[in-house]
Write a structure and sequence with these properties.
The chain has 18 helices and 20 strands. With 481 residues, the protein is of the alpha/beta class. Helix 10 packs parallel to helix 11 and helix 10 packs across helix 16.
Protein backbone atom coordinates (compact mmCIF):
# COMPACT_ATOMS: atom_id res chain seq x y z
CA UNK A 1 0.00 0.00 0.00
CA UNK A 2 1.43 3.37 -1.03
CA UNK A 3 0.30 6.51 0.80
CA UNK A 4 1.04 10.16 -0.01
CA UNK A 5 0.92 12.15 3.25
CA UNK A 6 0.39 15.86 2.52
CA UNK A 7 1.29 18.09 5.46
CA UNK A 8 2.53 21.63 6.03
CA UNK A 9 4.88 20.52 8.80
CA UNK A 10 6.56 17.36 10.07
CA UNK A 11 8.98 16.87 12.95
CA UNK A 12 12.00 17.04 12.92
CA UNK A 13 12.08 19.16 9.74
CA UNK A 14 9.59 21.89 10.68
CA UNK A 15 7.32 22.28 13.69
CA UNK A 16 4.92 24.85 15.08
CA UNK A 17 2.61 22.47 16.94
CA UNK A 18 1.23 18.98 17.37
CA UNK A 19 0.54 18.50 13.66
CA UNK A 20 4.29 18.20 13.10
CA UNK A 21 4.66 15.52 15.75
CA UNK A 22 1.84 13.47 14.23
CA UNK A 23 3.00 13.91 10.62
CA UNK A 24 6.54 12.97 11.62
CA UNK A 25 5.73 9.91 13.74
CA UNK A 26 2.75 8.31 11.96
CA UNK A 27 4.65 7.37 8.76
CA UNK A 28 7.27 5.53 10.82
CA UNK A 29 4.55 3.62 12.69
CA UNK A 30 2.76 2.80 9.43
CA UNK A 31 6.02 1.51 8.01
CA UNK A 32 5.95 -1.13 10.75
CA UNK A 33 2.53 -2.11 9.36
CA UNK A 34 4.10 -2.71 5.95
CA UNK A 35 2.76 0.54 4.46
CA UNK A 36 4.92 2.79 2.29
CA UNK A 37 4.40 6.49 3.11
CA UNK A 38 5.93 9.41 1.23
CA UNK A 39 5.56 12.72 3.06
CA UNK A 40 4.97 15.81 0.90
CA UNK A 41 6.22 19.05 2.50
CA UNK A 42 6.65 22.68 1.41
CA UNK A 43 10.27 23.69 0.83
CA UNK A 44 10.64 26.19 3.67
CA UNK A 45 14.23 27.37 4.30
CA UNK A 46 14.58 25.07 7.30
CA UNK A 47 13.41 22.07 5.32
CA UNK A 48 15.73 22.87 2.41
CA UNK A 49 18.64 23.24 4.83
CA UNK A 50 18.00 19.77 6.25
CA UNK A 51 18.05 18.33 2.73
CA UNK A 52 21.56 19.81 2.51
CA UNK A 53 21.57 19.64 -1.28
CA UNK A 54 20.84 15.91 -1.28
CA UNK A 55 17.35 16.16 -2.79
CA UNK A 56 16.89 14.71 -6.27
CA UNK A 57 14.61 16.63 -8.64
CA UNK A 58 11.81 14.29 -9.76
CA UNK A 59 9.33 16.72 -11.33
CA UNK A 60 9.25 20.35 -12.53
CA UNK A 61 6.43 22.86 -12.86
CA UNK A 62 6.91 25.74 -15.30
CA UNK A 63 3.94 27.50 -13.72
CA UNK A 64 2.37 26.28 -10.48
CA UNK A 65 -0.27 28.94 -9.87
CA UNK A 66 2.18 31.31 -11.53
CA UNK A 67 5.32 30.14 -9.71
CA UNK A 68 8.23 28.07 -10.97
CA UNK A 69 8.64 24.99 -8.81
CA UNK A 70 10.04 21.51 -8.67
CA UNK A 71 9.62 18.47 -6.47
CA UNK A 72 12.67 17.04 -4.72
CA UNK A 73 12.93 13.50 -3.38
CA UNK A 74 15.03 12.78 -0.29
CA UNK A 75 15.20 10.72 2.88
CA UNK A 76 15.70 12.57 6.17
CA UNK A 77 15.31 11.27 9.74
CA UNK A 78 13.75 8.08 8.45
CA UNK A 79 11.07 9.95 6.48
CA UNK A 80 10.71 9.35 2.74
CA UNK A 81 10.19 12.94 1.60
CA UNK A 82 8.87 14.79 -1.40
CA UNK A 83 9.55 18.51 -1.03
CA UNK A 84 7.96 21.28 -3.07
CA UNK A 85 10.87 23.58 -3.88
CA UNK A 86 9.14 26.85 -4.85
CA UNK A 87 11.24 29.77 -3.57
CA UNK A 88 8.70 32.42 -4.60
CA UNK A 89 6.14 30.76 -2.31
CA UNK A 90 8.10 29.25 0.56
CA UNK A 91 11.51 30.90 0.84
CA UNK A 92 10.47 33.28 3.63
CA UNK A 93 12.64 34.42 6.55
CA UNK A 94 10.11 33.81 9.31
CA UNK A 95 7.69 31.00 10.19
CA UNK A 96 5.80 28.66 7.86
CA UNK A 97 2.62 30.74 7.96
CA UNK A 98 3.65 34.27 8.85
CA UNK A 99 6.06 36.67 10.52
CA UNK A 100 6.07 39.41 13.14
CA UNK A 101 3.28 41.32 11.35
CA UNK A 102 0.90 38.34 11.13
CA UNK A 103 0.03 35.73 8.54
CA UNK A 104 1.43 36.06 5.03
CA UNK A 105 -1.12 37.73 2.75
CA UNK A 106 -0.64 35.07 0.07
CA UNK A 107 -1.13 31.99 2.23
CA UNK A 108 -4.10 31.11 0.04
CA UNK A 109 -1.80 30.94 -3.00
CA UNK A 110 1.03 29.18 -1.22
CA UNK A 111 -1.08 26.32 0.08
CA UNK A 112 -3.33 26.11 -2.96
CA UNK A 113 -0.19 25.58 -5.05
CA UNK A 114 0.99 22.99 -2.51
CA UNK A 115 -2.35 21.15 -2.74
CA UNK A 116 -2.44 21.31 -6.54
CA UNK A 117 1.07 19.87 -6.72
CA UNK A 118 0.03 17.05 -4.37
CA UNK A 119 -2.91 16.23 -6.65
CA UNK A 120 -0.56 16.03 -9.61
CA UNK A 121 1.65 13.62 -7.67
CA UNK A 122 -1.46 11.53 -7.01
CA UNK A 123 -2.13 11.53 -10.75
CA UNK A 124 1.31 10.03 -11.45
CA UNK A 125 3.55 13.06 -12.02
CA UNK A 126 6.53 11.30 -10.44
CA UNK A 127 7.87 8.34 -12.43
CA UNK A 128 7.59 5.08 -10.49
CA UNK A 129 5.32 6.44 -7.75
CA UNK A 130 1.57 6.62 -7.91
CA UNK A 131 -0.05 6.50 -4.47
CA UNK A 132 -3.01 4.30 -3.69
CA UNK A 133 -4.39 6.94 -1.32
CA UNK A 134 -3.73 10.55 -0.34
CA UNK A 135 -3.76 11.49 3.35
CA UNK A 136 -4.16 15.28 3.72
CA UNK A 137 -3.67 17.09 7.02
CA UNK A 138 -5.51 20.24 8.17
CA UNK A 139 -6.53 23.30 6.16
CA UNK A 140 -3.16 23.75 4.49
CA UNK A 141 -3.83 20.52 2.55
CA UNK A 142 -7.61 20.96 2.51
CA UNK A 143 -7.80 21.71 -1.21
CA UNK A 144 -6.17 18.40 -2.16
CA UNK A 145 -9.47 16.44 -2.19
CA UNK A 146 -11.06 19.24 -4.24
CA UNK A 147 -8.31 19.15 -6.87
CA UNK A 148 -8.61 15.35 -7.00
CA UNK A 149 -12.35 15.61 -7.57
CA UNK A 150 -12.40 18.41 -10.11
CA UNK A 151 -9.40 17.13 -12.04
CA UNK A 152 -11.00 13.69 -12.31
CA UNK A 153 -8.22 11.92 -10.39
CA UNK A 154 -9.76 8.75 -8.90
CA UNK A 155 -7.30 8.36 -5.99
CA UNK A 156 -9.22 8.13 -2.69
CA UNK A 157 -8.37 10.67 -0.01
CA UNK A 158 -8.53 11.17 3.74
CA UNK A 159 -8.58 14.55 5.45
CA UNK A 160 -7.45 14.60 9.08
CA UNK A 161 -8.70 17.51 11.20
CA UNK A 162 -6.07 18.34 13.79
CA UNK A 163 -7.77 21.53 15.01
CA UNK A 164 -11.08 22.77 13.61
CA UNK A 165 -10.34 26.28 14.87
CA UNK A 166 -7.91 26.80 11.99
CA UNK A 167 -9.95 26.69 8.79
CA UNK A 168 -8.09 28.56 6.03
CA UNK A 169 -10.83 31.00 4.99
CA UNK A 170 -10.08 33.53 2.24
CA UNK A 171 -12.02 36.12 0.17
CA UNK A 172 -13.96 35.02 -2.91
CA UNK A 173 -11.66 36.83 -5.34
CA UNK A 174 -8.86 34.28 -4.79
CA UNK A 175 -10.98 31.57 -6.45
CA UNK A 176 -10.17 32.78 -9.95
CA UNK A 177 -6.48 32.05 -9.31
CA UNK A 178 -6.89 28.46 -8.09
CA UNK A 179 -7.07 26.69 -11.47
CA UNK A 180 -10.37 25.09 -10.52
CA UNK A 181 -13.44 24.96 -12.80
CA UNK A 182 -16.28 27.44 -12.13
CA UNK A 183 -18.53 24.71 -10.72
CA UNK A 184 -16.09 24.23 -7.85
CA UNK A 185 -17.27 27.51 -6.33
CA UNK A 186 -20.36 25.87 -4.88
CA UNK A 187 -21.81 24.58 -1.63
CA UNK A 188 -20.44 21.08 -2.25
CA UNK A 189 -17.11 22.46 -3.47
CA UNK A 190 -14.84 25.15 -2.04
CA UNK A 191 -17.33 27.98 -1.41
CA UNK A 192 -17.84 28.82 2.25
CA UNK A 193 -19.88 31.80 3.49
CA UNK A 194 -19.23 33.65 0.25
CA UNK A 195 -15.49 33.04 0.26
CA UNK A 196 -13.14 30.11 -0.19
CA UNK A 197 -12.78 27.64 2.67
CA UNK A 198 -9.77 25.36 2.41
CA UNK A 199 -10.72 23.11 5.33
CA UNK A 200 -14.35 23.15 4.28
CA UNK A 201 -13.33 22.01 0.79
CA UNK A 202 -11.56 19.03 2.27
CA UNK A 203 -14.48 18.18 4.55
CA UNK A 204 -16.85 18.22 1.60
CA UNK A 205 -14.70 16.34 -0.90
CA UNK A 206 -12.47 13.84 0.92
CA UNK A 207 -13.43 10.19 0.66
CA UNK A 208 -13.12 9.86 4.43
CA UNK A 209 -12.50 12.15 7.38
CA UNK A 210 -10.61 11.55 10.57
CA UNK A 211 -9.86 13.59 13.62
CA UNK A 212 -7.45 12.98 16.42
CA UNK A 213 -9.65 11.53 19.16
CA UNK A 214 -13.08 9.88 19.38
CA UNK A 215 -14.45 12.48 21.81
CA UNK A 216 -13.32 15.36 19.58
CA UNK A 217 -15.09 13.65 16.66
CA UNK A 218 -18.30 13.86 18.68
CA UNK A 219 -17.67 17.45 19.81
CA UNK A 220 -17.11 18.89 16.32
CA UNK A 221 -20.48 17.56 15.17
CA UNK A 222 -22.23 19.83 17.70
CA UNK A 223 -23.00 23.56 17.46
CA UNK A 224 -20.83 24.18 20.52
CA UNK A 225 -17.75 22.50 19.07
CA UNK A 226 -18.30 22.66 15.32
CA UNK A 227 -17.16 26.26 14.82
CA UNK A 228 -19.63 26.83 12.00
CA UNK A 229 -18.87 23.54 10.27
CA UNK A 230 -21.00 21.23 12.43
CA UNK A 231 -23.76 21.10 9.82
CA UNK A 232 -21.41 19.87 7.12
CA UNK A 233 -19.68 17.50 9.52
CA UNK A 234 -23.09 16.12 10.52
CA UNK A 235 -23.88 15.27 6.91
CA UNK A 236 -20.60 13.36 6.72
CA UNK A 237 -20.90 11.60 10.07
CA UNK A 238 -20.70 8.20 8.40
CA UNK A 239 -17.32 9.09 6.90
CA UNK A 240 -15.81 10.49 10.13
CA UNK A 241 -13.58 8.45 12.45
CA UNK A 242 -11.83 9.56 15.63
CA UNK A 243 -8.38 7.98 16.01
CA UNK A 244 -6.39 9.12 19.01
CA UNK A 245 -2.83 10.33 18.46
CA UNK A 246 0.24 8.66 19.86
CA UNK A 247 3.74 9.92 20.54
CA UNK A 248 7.11 8.66 19.38
CA UNK A 249 7.80 6.40 22.35
CA UNK A 250 11.44 6.09 21.31
CA UNK A 251 12.05 9.85 21.50
CA UNK A 252 9.96 10.01 24.69
CA UNK A 253 11.47 7.18 26.71
CA UNK A 254 12.68 8.09 30.21
CA UNK A 255 14.98 5.06 30.25
CA UNK A 256 17.01 6.26 27.25
CA UNK A 257 16.23 9.99 26.86
CA UNK A 258 19.52 11.88 26.35
CA UNK A 259 17.86 15.20 27.19
CA UNK A 260 17.14 14.25 30.80
CA UNK A 261 19.37 15.17 33.73
CA UNK A 262 19.00 11.55 34.83
CA UNK A 263 17.21 8.61 33.30
CA UNK A 264 14.69 6.40 35.06
CA UNK A 265 12.00 3.79 34.54
CA UNK A 266 8.73 2.69 36.15
CA UNK A 267 10.56 0.18 38.37
CA UNK A 268 13.02 2.79 39.62
CA UNK A 269 11.93 6.43 39.50
CA UNK A 270 14.80 7.70 41.66
CA UNK A 271 16.26 9.52 38.64
CA UNK A 272 13.29 11.88 38.70
CA UNK A 273 14.93 13.72 41.62
CA UNK A 274 17.78 14.98 39.42
CA UNK A 275 15.33 16.21 36.81
CA UNK A 276 13.27 17.93 39.50
CA UNK A 277 16.40 19.73 40.71
CA UNK A 278 17.27 20.77 37.14
CA UNK A 279 13.76 22.15 36.59
CA UNK A 280 13.87 24.05 39.89
CA UNK A 281 17.17 25.62 38.87
CA UNK A 282 15.93 26.54 35.37
CA UNK A 283 12.89 28.34 36.81
CA UNK A 284 14.60 29.80 39.91
CA UNK A 285 12.27 27.88 42.21
CA UNK A 286 12.94 27.11 45.85
CA UNK A 287 14.39 23.60 46.10
CA UNK A 288 12.15 21.72 48.51
CA UNK A 289 9.81 18.74 48.62
CA UNK A 290 6.57 20.65 48.02
CA UNK A 291 4.47 19.63 44.99
CA UNK A 292 5.68 20.89 41.62
CA UNK A 293 3.16 21.54 38.85
CA UNK A 294 4.28 22.41 35.32
CA UNK A 295 2.73 23.82 32.16
CA UNK A 296 4.25 23.23 28.70
CA UNK A 297 1.91 24.91 26.26
CA UNK A 298 0.97 27.61 23.85
CA UNK A 299 -0.22 30.42 26.09
CA UNK A 300 -3.69 30.93 24.59
CA UNK A 301 -7.33 31.01 25.55
CA UNK A 302 -7.96 27.70 23.79
CA UNK A 303 -5.47 26.08 26.14
CA UNK A 304 -7.28 27.59 29.15
CA UNK A 305 -4.12 29.34 30.28
CA UNK A 306 -6.09 32.38 31.48
CA UNK A 307 -7.86 30.04 33.92
CA UNK A 308 -4.50 29.10 35.39
CA UNK A 309 -3.66 32.77 35.85
CA UNK A 310 -6.80 33.02 38.01
CA UNK A 311 -5.97 29.83 39.93
CA UNK A 312 -2.24 30.42 40.50
CA UNK A 313 -2.52 32.37 43.77
CA UNK A 314 -4.50 29.53 45.35
CA UNK A 315 -2.06 26.95 44.00
CA UNK A 316 0.73 28.75 45.87
CA UNK A 317 -1.47 29.17 48.95
CA UNK A 318 -1.97 25.39 48.97
CA UNK A 319 1.80 25.00 49.29
CA UNK A 320 2.59 24.03 45.72
CA UNK A 321 4.95 25.49 43.11
CA UNK A 322 4.44 26.18 39.40
CA UNK A 323 6.79 26.28 36.38
CA UNK A 324 5.43 27.59 33.06
CA UNK A 325 7.14 27.11 29.69
CA UNK A 326 5.47 28.53 26.60
CA UNK A 327 4.74 31.44 24.32
CA UNK A 328 1.62 32.95 22.84
CA UNK A 329 -0.75 35.73 23.87
CA UNK A 330 1.39 38.68 25.07
CA UNK A 331 -1.13 39.42 27.83
CA UNK A 332 -0.78 35.90 29.20
CA UNK A 333 2.99 35.97 28.85
CA UNK A 334 3.05 39.18 30.89
CA UNK A 335 0.64 37.71 33.45
CA UNK A 336 2.93 34.78 34.22
CA UNK A 337 6.02 36.96 34.36
CA UNK A 338 4.08 39.09 36.84
CA UNK A 339 3.06 36.06 38.90
CA UNK A 340 6.69 34.94 38.99
CA UNK A 341 7.67 38.36 40.31
CA UNK A 342 4.88 38.26 42.91
CA UNK A 343 5.75 34.73 44.07
CA UNK A 344 9.56 34.43 43.88
CA UNK A 345 10.71 30.88 44.34
CA UNK A 346 7.16 29.55 44.06
CA UNK A 347 6.26 30.41 40.44
CA UNK A 348 8.69 30.52 37.53
CA UNK A 349 8.05 31.37 33.88
CA UNK A 350 10.13 30.96 30.72
CA UNK A 351 8.68 32.63 27.62
CA UNK A 352 9.61 30.60 24.56
CA UNK A 353 10.05 26.92 23.84
CA UNK A 354 12.93 24.67 24.80
CA UNK A 355 12.64 20.99 23.79
CA UNK A 356 15.30 19.78 26.22
CA UNK A 357 13.78 21.70 29.12
CA UNK A 358 10.35 20.28 28.29
CA UNK A 359 11.76 16.76 28.69
CA UNK A 360 13.37 17.67 32.01
CA UNK A 361 10.12 19.20 33.29
CA UNK A 362 8.16 16.08 32.40
CA UNK A 363 10.89 13.99 33.97
CA UNK A 364 10.92 15.80 37.31
CA UNK A 365 7.57 17.47 38.08
CA UNK A 366 4.76 15.85 40.02
CA UNK A 367 1.98 16.90 37.65
CA UNK A 368 1.33 18.72 34.38
CA UNK A 369 -1.65 21.08 34.12
CA UNK A 370 -3.67 21.06 30.88
CA UNK A 371 -6.86 23.12 31.38
CA UNK A 372 -7.85 23.35 27.68
CA UNK A 373 -11.27 24.69 26.73
CA UNK A 374 -11.15 22.29 23.79
CA UNK A 375 -8.41 19.87 22.83
CA UNK A 376 -8.57 17.74 19.67
CA UNK A 377 -6.10 15.28 21.16
CA UNK A 378 -3.18 16.83 22.97
CA UNK A 379 0.30 15.37 23.19
CA UNK A 380 1.79 16.80 26.38
CA UNK A 381 -0.49 14.64 28.53
CA UNK A 382 0.81 11.56 26.68
CA UNK A 383 4.39 12.62 27.40
CA UNK A 384 3.37 13.22 31.02
CA UNK A 385 1.96 9.71 31.30
CA UNK A 386 5.12 8.22 29.80
CA UNK A 387 7.33 10.10 32.30
CA UNK A 388 5.18 9.74 35.41
CA UNK A 389 4.29 13.44 35.42
CA UNK A 390 0.62 13.05 36.26
CA UNK A 391 -1.78 14.93 33.94
CA UNK A 392 -4.42 17.18 35.49
CA UNK A 393 -6.72 17.83 32.55
CA UNK A 394 -10.07 19.29 31.57
CA UNK A 395 -12.57 16.63 30.51
CA UNK A 396 -12.64 17.50 26.81
CA UNK A 397 -11.59 15.96 23.50
CA UNK A 398 -8.52 13.76 23.52
CA UNK A 399 -7.75 14.62 27.14
CA UNK A 400 -10.91 12.75 28.16
CA UNK A 401 -9.91 9.82 25.93
CA UNK A 402 -6.33 9.38 27.14
CA UNK A 403 -6.36 10.11 30.90
CA UNK A 404 -8.25 7.86 33.32
CA UNK A 405 -9.59 9.95 36.18
CA UNK A 406 -8.46 8.97 39.67
CA UNK A 407 -11.95 8.57 41.10
CA UNK A 408 -12.59 5.99 43.82
CA UNK A 409 -13.63 3.26 41.37
CA UNK A 410 -10.55 3.76 39.17
CA UNK A 411 -8.22 3.84 42.19
CA UNK A 412 -9.74 0.66 43.62
CA UNK A 413 -9.46 -1.03 40.22
CA UNK A 414 -5.84 0.08 39.88
CA UNK A 415 -6.35 1.83 36.54
CA UNK A 416 -6.23 5.56 37.38
CA UNK A 417 -3.62 7.57 35.45
CA UNK A 418 -4.48 11.23 36.17
CA UNK A 419 -7.05 13.77 37.24
CA UNK A 420 -9.89 15.13 35.11
CA UNK A 421 -11.97 18.18 36.02
CA UNK A 422 -15.18 19.88 34.98
CA UNK A 423 -16.50 22.50 34.40
CA UNK A 424 -13.73 24.08 32.34
CA UNK A 425 -13.43 27.28 34.32
CA UNK A 426 -11.18 28.64 37.06
CA UNK A 427 -13.29 26.97 39.76
CA UNK A 428 -13.09 23.61 38.02
CA UNK A 429 -9.32 23.95 37.63
CA UNK A 430 -8.91 24.87 41.30
CA UNK A 431 -10.89 21.78 42.22
CA UNK A 432 -8.68 19.63 39.96
CA UNK A 433 -5.54 21.02 41.60
CA UNK A 434 -6.94 20.38 45.08
CA UNK A 435 -7.80 16.78 44.12
CA UNK A 436 -4.28 16.24 42.81
CA UNK A 437 -2.76 17.66 46.01
CA UNK A 438 -4.97 15.40 48.13
CA UNK A 439 -3.77 12.38 46.17
CA UNK A 440 -0.13 13.45 46.54
CA UNK A 441 -0.60 13.36 50.32
CA UNK A 442 -1.33 9.63 49.98
CA UNK A 443 2.10 8.34 48.87
CA UNK A 444 1.02 4.76 48.13
CA UNK A 445 -1.95 5.90 46.05
CA UNK A 446 0.14 8.48 44.19
CA UNK A 447 2.84 5.91 43.45
CA UNK A 448 0.19 3.54 42.09
CA UNK A 449 -1.21 6.27 39.81
CA UNK A 450 2.31 7.04 38.63
CA UNK A 451 3.01 3.38 37.84
CA UNK A 452 -0.25 3.07 35.94
CA UNK A 453 0.50 6.25 34.01
CA UNK A 454 3.93 5.02 32.96
CA UNK A 455 2.44 1.67 31.89
CA UNK A 456 -0.14 3.31 29.60
CA UNK A 457 0.30 2.59 25.89
CA UNK A 458 0.91 6.02 24.37
CA UNK A 459 2.67 4.71 21.27
CA UNK A 460 1.43 4.94 17.70
CA UNK A 461 1.10 1.18 17.30
CA UNK A 462 -2.63 0.76 17.92
CA UNK A 463 -3.56 3.96 16.09
CA UNK A 464 -1.35 3.01 13.14
CA UNK A 465 -3.28 -0.26 12.85
CA UNK A 466 -6.55 1.68 12.83
CA UNK A 467 -5.25 3.96 10.08
CA UNK A 468 -4.02 0.95 8.11
CA UNK A 469 -7.45 -0.66 8.35
CA UNK A 470 -9.14 2.58 7.28
CA UNK A 471 -6.80 2.97 4.31
CA UNK A 472 -7.51 -0.60 3.21
CA UNK A 473 -11.28 -0.05 3.46
CA UNK A 474 -11.10 2.87 1.01
CA UNK A 475 -9.20 1.08 -1.74
CA UNK A 476 -11.15 -0.38 -4.66
CA UNK A 477 -12.13 -4.02 -4.37
CA UNK A 478 -9.57 -6.22 -5.99
CA UNK A 479 -6.76 -3.71 -5.42
CA UNK A 480 -3.42 -5.41 -4.83
CA UNK A 481 -2.24 -2.60 -2.55
Amino acid sequence: MRILSVTSEAFPLVKTGGLADVAGALPLALERQGIEVRTFLPGYPGVMAKLDGAGQSVHEFHSLLGARARILSAKVAGLDLLVLDAPELFDRPFGPYGGPDGDYDDNWRRFAAFAKAAAEVAAGAIPGFRPDLVHAHDWQAGLVPAYLRYYGIPTPSILTIHNLAFQGYFPAHVFSWLDLPPQAFALDGVEYYGGVGFLKAGLANATALTTVSPTYAEEIATPGGGMGLDGLIGTRAGALTGIVNGIDDRAWDPATDPLLAARFCADDVSGRAANRAAAEKAFHLTADDTPLFVVISRLTGQKGIDLLVEASDELVAQGARLAVLGTGDPTLEAAFLGLAADHPGRIGARIGYDEALAHVMQGGADAILIPSRFEPCGLTQLCGLRYGCIPVVSRVGGLADTVIDANIAAINAGVATGVQFQPVDAGGLRHGIRRALTLMRQPDTWAMIQRQAMAADVSWDRSARLYANLYASLLPEGSDA
